[in-house]
Amino acid sequence: MVARTGLYAVLAANMAVVAYFFAQAGFASNALIVMGRLAGLYGALVMAFQLVLVARLPWLDRRIGMDRLTAWHRWTGFSLLWLLLAHVVFIAFGYAEGTGVGPVSQIIDLAETTEGVLRAIVAFGIILVVGAVSARYARRRLAYETWHFIHLYTYVAVVLAFTHQVAVGTSFASSSVATAYWYGVWGVALGSVFLGRLALPLWRNWRHQLRVTAVVHESDNVVSIHMTGKDLDRMPARAGQFFLWRFLTPDRWWQANPFSLSAAPDGRTLRLTAKAAGAGSAALRHVKVGTRVFAEGPYGAFTALHRTRPESVLIAGGVGVTPIRALLEEIEGHAVVIYRVATDRDAVLYDELRDLALVRGHEVHLVTGPAVPDKLAPAELLRMVPDIGDRDVFLCGPPPMMNAVLGSLRELDVPKPQIHFERFSLAG
């Protein structure tokens, strides 16, 4: 809550600063141009804020969670799209007013005669494409790898937009203080990306040097990868977190996929367990022992650090059991595990859950059967865990199941601070 409030406060303060420098620079006589310039400045600020959200900074990730940062990135992304659209439309009509040419012709003329405008048009086109593939309809139909690759072009748009602002931004050059402010904003944003997305992952992988030690086929379509490396006792990973994994083979080195740890880190080994749901996860079955691994992370706030109660409920659906399995190994106090699958054959890692529960004094409920009727409805949850309102609830599974369970928890009046979940989707 503190981190989230802090982020909003920083954004609001910067919006006020941008408005001040904009007013200090003076207003154009044309109201459309005034609105267009202000929309462009706020678009630049939101774009910088976007970079901080997806920089994967450990401080923010541990307190907020990568899924929530990604959700904010998504909505601020659409805000950015509308701000840039307003910037283009208002500027085009504003400059066209009184010239006798249309707005499209005016944009073409500006691109030909004004430094930085053509770069801005290219940047806007890239943002439009990224926005289109981020819409829910398109996102469901694109492979993760394709979507991620298209998202990488956003960095090209950022560079083009920044150089456009430097070249023609009246507010940018209105005073030395304004210039220093904007360089500072972009410096923090780009520096965050450099630190979180490049420097920190490179340093950690150089330090730990992960290698595959075993590939275990848990079922027909689920595989576990065991790894070891150097100084793993100094890796700041917790049960419930995930990494972006790259297996450095000739055909897969370029591809990163998010998978949770399926066992609590013990300072000597790491393990992930994945279901074949796409090309990347299916290829894990063919990884060889000894393969080098490049891991970005750990990420996620789905850990025992956020507990508010001494006792817990861990609810898993399908392969969403992997972070739940890891949490059960680390979590203190009495825990009730509810594992929802279609059939007994789908219950991967169930034997490990049962053995851990036996040793640590927890309960495990295996719930099988079709999706209808809902076997995790409020009455069913209350039957398995009568005191569920007094426990922390950790939830991971397919989105439809998670949405249904969250609805059940609301009906049971489980306080929101006691509900912990992550959807494990990443922005590029």
TrEMBL record:
Q: List keywords of the entry alphabetically.
A: 2Fe-2S, FAD, Flavoprotein, Iron, Iron-sulfur, Membrane, Metal-binding, Oxidoreductase, Transmembrane, Transmembrane helix
Record's subcellular location: Membrane
Keyword Cell inner membrane set for record: no
Give the matching InterPro entries: FAD-bd_FR_type, Fe3_Rdtase_TM_dom, FNR_nucleotide-bd, MRET, OxRdtase_FAD/NAD-bd, Riboflavin_synthase-like_b-brl
Chief location category: membrane
The coenzyme or cofactor needed here is: FAD
User: What Pfam families would the database entry show?
Assistant: Ferric_reduct, NAD_binding_1
A single GO molecular function term of this UniProt record: oxidoreductase activity
Its record classes its membrane topology as: Multi-pass membrane protein
Q: How is this protein annotated for GO cellular component?
A: membrane
Name of the molecule in the record: Oxidoreductase
Species name = Streptomyces lincolnensis
